[in-house]
Amino acid sequence: MTYPKPLFTSATPTPAPAVTAVAVPPARPPLLPELGRRAKAVAGVVIPPVLTLLVVLVAWQAIVGDSYTGLPSPKQVWLESKDLILHPFYDHGGVDKGLFWHVFTSLKRVGIGFSISAVCGILLGVFVGSNRWAHRGLDPIFQVLRTVPPLAWLPISLAAFHQANPSALFVIFITAIWPIIINTAVGVRNIPSDYVNVAKVLRLSPVEYFFKILLPATTPYIFTGLRIGIGMSWLAIVASEMLLGGVGIGFFIWDQYNASRIADIIVALAWVGVTGFFLDRLVALIGHFVSRGNAAS
């Protein structure tokens, strides 16, 4: 008796049920707590200096009082210089202009003089930092010249250029260039040896080494020098304009002193301080973006 041979068929695999991936949007933080957190951060930055300024003004008013001799009180500054404060854009021709135009003229001079000193200072700093003999020969001279006060350069610039505006630009240039040179040279000398060895292994050309190794490594040092230089430029232009005359915030302060308008001088000093602060923050912001956060802010 024979039995039928069983037939085995291969099992057909059953497809797994398709799983559709659903993209889950990232959870967003609640709007109101986020706004509250940012408002708290802004208030922490703004409120302390505002309160300090109010305390200083109140103490100043209490000490000086309403005396019309000597230093005017904040109340007298407001009463005597209200038009100057509220109308900074008037222009009656000549030197009879609002404070905005005086500051704007000074800023143009600082922009030209500082730009020239930045280019020359960075190039000289790279040369001094990368060449040992140049560093030994030039660095002592730079260390001596950087201690010369800005106004001490003014007679030399007047003798050389015979005109007020080029003389002011030279004073800005010669005042701002030293910190730029010194900080750039320090940055070049502090380039890590690993970077230099990588450049040798890759056989980078001098141009490639400058843009791919030297410049990125020294950017924080360069912008430290630029921040010091822009501050010294602003100090130099105000001092030099007092002696050179014409339109400019320095001449305005000196002119008001000759007219015994101390209240106007106080308002002008506030403009000088605020403008210098924003110049410093502008260079720091540019350095932050260029160095990708490595420069000190």
Automatic annotation (TrEMBL):
- Keyword Cell membrane on this protein? yes
Top-level taxonomic group: Bacteria
The answer, when asked if Chaperone is one of the entry's keywords, is: no
Chief location category: membrane
- Give the ABC transmembrane type-1 domain ranges: 103-284
Per its UniProt record, what InterPro entries does this chain match?
MetI-like, MetI-like_sf, NtrB
Q: Topology with regard to the membrane?
A: Multi-pass membrane protein
Q: Where are the transmembrane segments?
A: 41-63, 110-129, 141-161, 167-188, 209-228, 234-254, 266-290
Q: Which PROSITE patterns match?
A: ABC_TM1 (PS50928)
UniProt cross-references to Pfam families, sorted A to Z: BPD_transp_1
The protein's UniProt keywords, in alphabetical order, are: Cell inner membrane, Cell membrane, Ion transport, Membrane, Transmembrane, Transmembrane helix, Transport
Q: Which family does it belong to?
A: Belongs to the binding-protein-dependent transport system permease family.
What protein name applies here? Nitrate ABC transporter permease
Organism taxonomic ancestry: Bacteria, Pseudomonadati, Pseudomonadota, Alphaproteobacteria, Caulobacterales
Tell me the name of the encoding gene: ntrB
